[in-house]
Amino acid sequence: MKSLLFKNWHLMRYFRFALSLMLFAQAYETQQWFYLLFGLFFLMQALFNLGCGAAGCDVNYKNKKQE
Length: 67
Hints:
The chain is mostly helical. The protein is 58% helix and 0% strand. The protein is built from 3 helices and no strands. It is elongated and about 55 Å long.
């Protein structure tokens, strides 16, 4: 778990983390607490490295013909 949180940080993870912090600040300043949900969404993506990468969200599978 420790390596998941502290290793393999790249530009997109930093961007998601910064976006979540901006959304938290926006929610506090405007007192529109709906922004917290979006901030939490991007924070979880940044911390646990979730989401689709540049290659897309495909699932690798093999057909019987390919084996």
